[in-house]
Write a structure and sequence with these properties.
globular, disordered N terminus, six-stranded antiparallel β-sheet, ten-stranded mixed β-sheet, binds zinc ion, about 15% strand
Length: about 550
């Protein structure tokens, strides 16, 4: 087995991951080599300058990056940008964010949309995990609900994202020499960097089996992944020459923020003590190659973070008193076990967890009248007999629960002939069109909510978001002790439609240009940019030669 993409390795480090000792032993066998995968042979000849170098910081919201820059906690990025003129303008750089994330504001969906320029309903990647009706498969490139070593190893050893992203990637569209360090969305790049045995040995040694709850979080475990990502890119630049398009992915900072008590303060420290030095190593390699001039340096992220209570009451995935699975089961929808190999029979509903959201896919129960029948998942569920009863059962159970864990129960109703889909909200047991609900009940804290939900549920793969979409109360507008999320317990989560989760940074530096020149080259950059604008921007910057 060969390791083809690393992000799932990081999943092994999540404190919610079970069976860790065995899993890591086997993972060690998988990841013996690390180093570099050559995805094309021969690799493309470089054509730049201009070049583009992207620092992809997982889980660093726009506010978090801005505060770190203002506090002088990112001296490497600060010196690249030069003297500050105002909060968005430096001598050699500009901030053109915040850019609005897709919904849910969650890792795999957001990076896929960032590096394709298309919304989740078209990319086919609506979250960290999802059920696909067309093939009856549960896909979990970054598992949240599914656990167990076979799942983790399956994601380690398979080129999952290569086959799951349904639209062209930035690397395929740019068609220039591209190096990618660790980012799972890399189809079409020339070289892919993965971690080596030394870093892995550190990870394995530092990771206590089943480190959940009160175990102190070992920051070096996560930092080693980010440092390795930077080292590998620096090595590639030195050995192969600078690429036209380079992407350095830092997954460790997000995983650490999930797991650390005082998550936002710890993230600030991590930026200053780990991320800045990692960026410095890559930039030094570009400088040594004489390639810093002519290189656009972009810093962006997939989402931010919102602190949550670390307990089984607020973590709706574990032993919470409010159980989606138990509610569905008593309503006549036994739920698929949380495993990649759950077989095809015995269930009428499939759950996928996304932090602030959960997707529930429902069977047309007339296709499987006997308990042991496998259902025909290629057909949509019936509205009156399947979708409405399941949604009402969930809404009633959540409303009756003293903690009020859910904010909205949304229903996706496919259009005739598979065209478009209607989104509705359950109010007093009745489905109300989402637009009518929002007109009646303004929700300004849910940024561009209707449009971003349509990005998720419209398009050829809108069904990947399920038939009933549950949204928890999560976001800075909700008191911290009233925030709920679908996963095992963590200290911080995201995926909500609120600004803290949904505002990603986009800082652009170009050491040989002034801020005014940089803004001039951006062309008609939208006033309210989104993650869908990122790929077109990179293509435009690469084109300016
Ligand atoms: Zn993320």
């Amino acid at each position: 087995m060969r390791l083809r993409h690393l992000a799932p390795l990081a999943i092994l480090l999540l404190p919610g991951c079970r069976e860790t000792a065995d899993t890591l032993d086997e993972a060690a066998e998988v990841v013996v080599e690390g180093g570099v995968e050559r995805l094309r042979e021969p690799i493309r000849a470089p054509v730049g300058p201009p070049r583009v170098l992207v620092f992809a910081l997982d889980g660093v919201g726009e506010g978090a990056l801005r505060e770190a820059l203002e506090a002088g906690a990112l001296p490497t990025l600060g010196s690249l940008l030069g003297a500050g003129r105002d909060s968005t303008t430096w001598a050699h750089g500009v901030s053109v964010g915040p850019i609005l994330s897709v919904l849910p504001s969650i890792t795999v969906a957001a990076w896929t949309s960032l590096f394709t320029g298309r919304p989740p309903g078209e990319t086919g990647v609506p979250g960290n995990e999802w059920f696909s009706r067309s093939d009856g498969e549960f896909h979990a490139p970054a598992p949240v609900s599914v656990t167990g070593k076979s799942d983790a190893l399956a994601t380690l050893s398979d080129q999952l994202m290569d086959s799951l992203v349904a639209v062209p990637t930035l690397f395929e569209r740019a068609d220039v020499r591209s190096y990618v360090s660790l980012l799972p969305v890399h189809r079409g790049a020339d070289l892919l960097a993965v971690p080596g045995a030394a870093e892995l040995a550190d990870l394995l040694g530092a990771f206590p089996a089943g480190a959940v709850g009160e175990e102190p979080v070992k920051r070096q475990v996560y930092a080693a992944v980010d440092r390795a990502s930077a080292e590998r890119m620096a090595d590639l630049v030195e050995e192969e020459g600078p690429p036209d398009l380079g992407v350095v992915y830092f997954p460790g900072i997000d995983l650490y923020t999930h797991a650390a008590p005082s998550p936002l303060a710890e993230q600030r420290r991590y930026l200053a003590e780990v991320t800045d030095a990692a960026m410095a190593e890559v930039l030094a390699a570009y400088r040594a190659a004489g390639a810093l001039d002519g290189t656009w340096v972009l810093v962006t992220a997939d989402h931010g973070h919102t602190p949550v209570p670390h307990d089984a009451t607020h973590a709706l995935g574990g032993d919470s008193a409010f159980s989606v699975a138990a509610t569905l089961d008593s309503a006549g929808f036994p739920v698929r076990p949380p495993s990649l190999d759950a077989g095809s029979a015995g269930y009428r509903a499939v759950m996928a967890w996304q932090g602030a959201f959960a997707y529930v896919s429902l069977a047309d129960r007339s296709s499987c009248p006997d308990e042991d029948d496998p259902c025909d998942w290629t057909a949509p569920p019936r509205w009156d007999e399947d979708v409405l009863p399941a949604a009402r059962a969930l809404d009633r159970a959540a409303a009756a629960h003293p903690t009020q864990p859910l904010d909205l129960v949304l229903l996706r109703r496919p259009g005739a002939g598979g065209e478009g889909s209607e989104l509705l909200v359950l109010r007093d047991d009745r489905p109300v069109p989402l637009d009518a609900y929002l007109a009646d009940t303004p929700r300004p804290e849910l940024l561009d909510f209707a449009e971003r939900m349509r990005w998720l549920t419209d398009g050829p793969h809108g069904d990947h978001a399920g038939d009933v979409i549950l949204m928890t109360r999560l976001g800075a507008s909700v008191p911290e002790n009233d925030r709920y999320y679908f996963s095992h317990p963590y200290h911080s989560w995201h995926a909500s439609a609120e600004a803290r989760d949904s505002h990603a940074p986009l800082v652009i530096a170009r050491p040989d240009l002034t801020a005014a020149e940089i803004r001039g080259r951006l062309g008609s950059w939208p006033e309210r940019p989104t993650q869908l604008d990122f790929t077109p921007l990179v293509l435009q910057l690469l084109d300016g030669r």
